[in-house]
Amino acid sequence: MHTYSFEKLEVWQLSRSFRKDIYQLTFKFPKEETFGLVSQIKRSVSSIGACLAEGSGKITLKDKAHYTNMAYTTTLETLNHLIAAMDLDYISEQEYLTSRSKIEIITTKLSALRKSQLP
């Protein structure tokens, strides 16, 4: 089976694992949030890896950097949703801090990747 270039990226692998963590975390959110915060956070966390995958198919480094930047911004969007979840007592402060640590690793790696894609 062929392995695509995005699958080899450590940051994509981390975002894949982080997506699983967030999906598991949202299981305990109130049912009335299913189409609200749960939907938003699942979409944003899924977009991190999706942007990296889509960007890997682009030809120019400028285009690749654009999608890496989109992955970065959706990571920050996920952080915002986690802050809201903590504020609403859907997750504990410890769960928030654990997720935030993972976000900091992902954003650092995305920044480094983006720098390598810019001339």
Helix content: over 70%
CATH topology: de novo design (two linked rop proteins)
Class from secondary-structure proportions:
mainly alpha
Rg measurement, Å? 15 Å
Apparent shape: elongated
What is the H-and-E element order?
Answer: HHHH
Beta strand %: under 5%
Q: What summary fits the major beta sheet?
A: none
Annotation, overall tally of beta strands: 0
* Stretches with pLDDT under 50, minimum 5 residues: none
Superfamily (CATH H level) name = 23S rRNA-intervening sequence
What's the CATH first level?
A: Mainly Alpha
Provide tags for this entry.
de novo design (two linked rop proteins), 119 residues
Task: Characterise the protein shown here.
Helix content is 75%, strand content 0%. It is mostly helical and 119 residues long. The protein has a single domain (33-117), classed as de novo design (two linked rop proteins) (Up-down Bundle), CATH 1.20.1440.60. Helix 1 runs antiparallel to helix 2 (37-56) and helix 2 (37-56) runs antiparallel to helix 3. The mean pLDDT is 97.
In short:
The protein has 119 residues and is an all-alpha fold. It contains 4 helices and no strands.
